[in-house]
Amino acid sequence: MKLNDIRASWAALQVVTGIGPIHNETDYDRMVALADGLIESGLAGDGGELSGLFGLVSGLIADYDDKNHIFPVASPREMLRFFMEQHGLTQTDFPEIGSQGVVSEILSGRRLLNARQIAALVARFHVSADLFIEPVSPVH
């Protein structure tokens, strides 16, 4: 292992990206902006040139969220509605989920989110998939 090479590369990466541990909301906002930029670039998807970097950044964000952001207990559709309100989004702003009609059915409870839709929401909002998974009722 060539630690001097790693040290120099790490310093250069930090200068370019600002990547590093998240200690506060300013760091958090910086990492979310980096994750958003990676998604918008189209290079963060499966097999994308920067998918590894996106994975690292998403992990940092998720760890910080788990320790510092308490989300209320709510159904997946309530969580989707919450994120829509927080980000000023409408039902037509979710092509990754489906048409406006599909989003409407999810919000009304007539349809559940599928795995692909949940993965898209996790990537978009940088939150745990648990927020969008319908709890299973115990069988009696």
Strands, helices and their partners?
Elements: H1 3-17, H2 25-41, H3 51-68, H4 76-87, H5 100-108, H6 115-125
What does this structure look like?
The radius of gyration is 18 Å and the shape is elongated. α2 packs antiparallel against α3 (51-68). The protein has helices spanning 3-17, 25-41, 51-68, 76-87, 100-108, 115-125. The chain contains six helices and no strands. 59% of the residues lie in helices and 0% in strands. It folds into two domains: 19-68; 76-132, 434 Repressor (Amino-terminal Domain) (Orthogonal Bundle). It is mainly alpha-helical and 140 residues long.
Mean pLDDT over all positions? 87
CATH class of the largest domain: Mainly Alpha
Number of domains: 2
Put simply, the count of helices is 6
Q: Structural class, please?
A: mainly alpha
* E-strand count: 0
Helical amount among residues, as a percent range?
55-70%
What distance separates the N and C termini?
57 Å
CATH topology of the largest domain: 434 Repressor (Amino-terminal Domain)
Topology as a string of helices (H) and strands (E): HHHHHH
Biggest pleated sheet: none
The CATH architecture assignment of the largest domain turns out to be Orthogonal Bundle
